[in-house]
Write a structure and sequence with these properties.
The chain has 6 helices and 16 strands. It is of the alpha+beta class. The longest helix is centred in the middle third of the chain and has 31 residues.
């Protein structure tokens, strides 16, 4: 009897402890973990906005070889869905429902056999020195049943471990990528260079983008005539200096310019001094209609390296269209200065 009383007392004690744990256990599932990554947000975001990239870093994918993914909806971003089956981890689905690339991503998860949804948020905050503070959270929208709250204390610890592992995997992938970034984007090779100081004879104006060609032709003629009158010879090719590019308003603040040396004043012409600067440069060959792709390539290059551009952007038209009628041979050098 004494032994039976001891066993019953122990069981009652454990039951009481379990009830206490249920009282203090979480009423909802909530996890929040953070990590600092030495990479820009754009690099990290490339691994999270496309479910096809998740097997590289997801702790559940890496630990469970029985997971089978089925992707549907959009290829990536909002509307992209990953459904999975697993012999070990069960079945479920996850959909991207909100994003603000490359700063924020929100997904909705549903696990088969579990009522309601869980929502996961990933936030990326720029930090000094080309670093990113990344946070990853999850919260359920359904209260945890009272008698499961004790179990959730231990389950939450397991989820925290998984989130920490996932963030560390993302950190490793992103930092390795930054250390091996390419020099070619969108088929355009980009280099870092020292841009020497230049003096330009220029005419500047804010104009509709539709008038750029006529403005350049007219302004170029005026500058050439003024230099001839001042007995000055250009020291380089015609150049466009772009101080503002307003896609929404379809306007640009630009200057038609010719580099000169030895000029102090030219009637009717503004002399612009560009100091020696660090720059990235891309050489584009082809019709001017394709220049936008080169600019996008430079944007990609600078964004992945946390470079902050400074205006103006310089387009140097190396090939004179009047001397070379074949547009496929026109060369343009594009310079972006950075801080």
């Amino acid at each position: 009897m004494k032994a039976l009383r001891i066993i019953l007392g122990t069981l009652l004690g454990l039951a009481a402890l379990y009830l206490v744990l249920c009282l203090v256990g979480p009423k909802k599932v909530h996890v929040l973990r953070t990590v600092e990554i030495e990479a820009p947000a754009a690099v990290i975001y490339g691994y999270i906005y496309d479910f096809r990239q998740w097997p590289q870093w997801s702790p559940w994918q890496l630990a469970d070889s029985t997971i089978k993914n089925t992707y549907s909806g959009k290829p990536y971003g909002v509307g992209s869905v990953n459904s999975w089956t697993s012999e070990k981890s069960g079945n479920g689905s996850q959909e991207i429902i909100e994003e603000d690339a490359p700063k924020f991503l929100k997904t909705r998860l549903q696990f088969n056999g579990w009522d309601g949804y869980s929502f996961s948020e990933m936030k990326l905050e720029d930090k000094e020195g080309c670093k990113t503070l990344m946070s990853w959270s999850m919260e359920g929208d359904t209260p945890v049943p009272f008698f499961m709250r004790a179990m959730m204390i231990f389950m939450s610890r397991s989820i925290i471990g998984d989130y920490d592992e996932g963030l560390e995997n993302l950190k490793k992938l992103s930092e390795e990528k930054v250390s091996n970034l390419p020099n070619s984007y969108r088929g355009i090779t980009i280099e870092q260079t020292d841009f020497p100081a230049h003096t330009y004879a220029s005419i500047r104006q804010r104009i509709p983008m539709s008038e750029m060609q006529s403005f350049f032709e007219t302004g170029g003629g005026v500058i050439s005539k003024a230099l001839a009158g001042a007995k000055l010879t250009p020291s380089g090719a015609f150049t466009g200096l772009y101080y503002e590019w307003d896609d929404a308003g379809q306007k640009t603040d630009m200057a038609v310019a010719l580099p000169v040396t030895g000029a102090t004043a030219i009637p009717g012409i503004e002399l612009v001094e560009l100091p020696a600067s660090k720059a990235v440069v891309a050489s584009y060959v082809g019709n001017y209609d394709g220049l936008a792709n080169a600019h996008f390539a430079i944007d990609d290059y600078m964004r992945e390296r946390c470079m902050v551009p400074k205006m103006p952007v310089v387009e140097e038209y190396v090939t004179d269209p009047m001397l070379e009628p074949d547009t496929s041979k026109w060369e343009t050098r594009i310079y972006y200065f950075y801080e």
